[in-house]
TrEMBL record:
Subcellular location: Mitochondrion
Listed name of the protein: Deacetylase sirtuin-type domain-containing protein
Cited Gene3D superfamilies: SIR2/SIRT2 'Small Domain, TPP-binding domain
Keyword NAD on entry: yes
Gene Ontology terms: cellular component: mitochondrion; nucleus
Family matches, as Pfam families: SIR2 (PF02146)
Family named by the database record: Belongs to the sirtuin family. Class I subfamily.
Any one GO MF annotation of this record: histone deacetylase activity, NAD-dependent
Keywords per UniProt: Metal-binding, Mitochondrion, NAD, Transferase, Zinc
InterPro entries the record matches: DHS-like_NAD/FAD-binding_dom (IPR029035), NAD-dep_sirtuin_deacylases (IPR050134), Sirtuin (IPR003000), Sirtuin_cat_small_dom_sf (IPR026591), Ssirtuin_cat_dom (IPR026590)
Record-linked PANTHER family: NAD-DEPENDENT PROTEIN DEACYLASE SIRTUIN-5, MITOCHONDRIAL-RELATED
Organism: Pisolithus tinctorius Marx 270
Length: 286
């Protein structure tokens, strides 16, 4: 069974809901908010990932995001990222979906999908929409300027604070003026990610894609987080084909196909007919 069974396939929308984001991150040993190996367990999401939390204590929130940036910045794409990057190339899809267009809509903020595509296909603009923003981007709270930023550390005052976290020491109280500032207006910068209580990015573009998609590949759990969980439902309602790749059969209600197992195992096999173990070779060759 494969998603290619829809002969009218014109467009494929792929969504990576946050459970798989957590999963992909765990594969790369990136601690997550709530994982069993997670740090920052003394804080809830509302302490760290909301506009309110940032207004109340930007120093604490920046230390958390600095910590995440330092870890994510050292991570490399895994076989799931590689399989999706290959599948985004039309010549790689000719067997399974010859005339299809493909867009990856991801909730991941670590940038690994984009990084993987850039490593493999540096001259191609990757068809990826990062609906929850980017860890390696800043947003000015004053002038609204968004800028890519992979500085490590992002500012001198945050240097080494990730070590405090590892040792379970309490975070520092860093003065506002020493936190990351905008190069244009000197306003306070915040991480360029979408927080709880905020709207997703590129929502119109995503709606248009989902409305046109006749195949949805849902990688991870499909039923937990809105609006990503609505994408597959919308495709299914229009008689499109839905395939779920997930370790657990949760949320496969509207799916026509279910591929159980870790996505770094199932994606290379199902999408490309390649052995998962060979995926890292692809990255090294290029
Ligand atoms: Zn600014």
């Amino acid at each position: 069974m494969s998603p290619s069974s829809s002969p009218s396939c014109k467009r494929v929308a792929t969504s990576l809901p946050s459970p798989v984001q957590a999963y992909l991150q765990r594969l790369e040993s990136i601690p997550t908010f709530r994982g069993s190996d997670g740090l920052w367990l003394n804080y809830t999401l509302s302490d760290l990932a909301t506009p309110r939390a940032f207004r109340k204590n930007p120093s604490k929130v920046w230390q958390f995001y600095h910590y995440r940036r330092e870890i994510a910045g050292k991570a490399l794409p895994n076989p799931a990222h590689i399989a999706l990057a290959l599948f985004s190339q039309p010549d790689q899809r000719k067997e399974i979906a010859p005339d299809a267009e493909f867009t990856l809509i991801t909730q991941n903020v670590d940038g690994l999908s984009v990084l993987c595509s850039q490593m493999l296909f540096p001259s191609t603009d990757p068809p990826i929409i990062e609906m929850h923003g980017r860890l390696f981007e800043t947003l000015c709270t004053q002038c609204g300027d968004r800028m890519p930023n992979r500085d490590s550390p992002i500012c001198p005052a945050l240097a080494g604070t990730e070590e405090l976290v590892k040792s379970h020491a309490k975070e520092r109280q860093i003065p506002l003026e020493d936190l990351p500032r905008c190069q244009k207006c000197r306003g306070l910068l915040r991480p360029g990610v979408v927080w709880f209580e905020e709207s997703i990015l590129h929502d119109e573009e995503i709606s248009e894609l989902v409305d046109q998609a006749d195949v949805a590949l849902v990688i991870g759990t499909s039923s937990q987080v809105a609006p990503a969980n609505l994408f597959a439902h919308s495709v299914a309602e229009r008689k499109g084909t839905v395939a779920v790749f997930n370790t657990e059969p949760q949320g496969i209600g509207s799916a026509h196909f279910y591929f159980p197992g870790p996505c770094e195992q199932t994606l290379p096999t199902v999408l490309l007919g390649k052995e998962p173990d060979k995926m890292n070779d692809v990255l090294q060759q290029d």
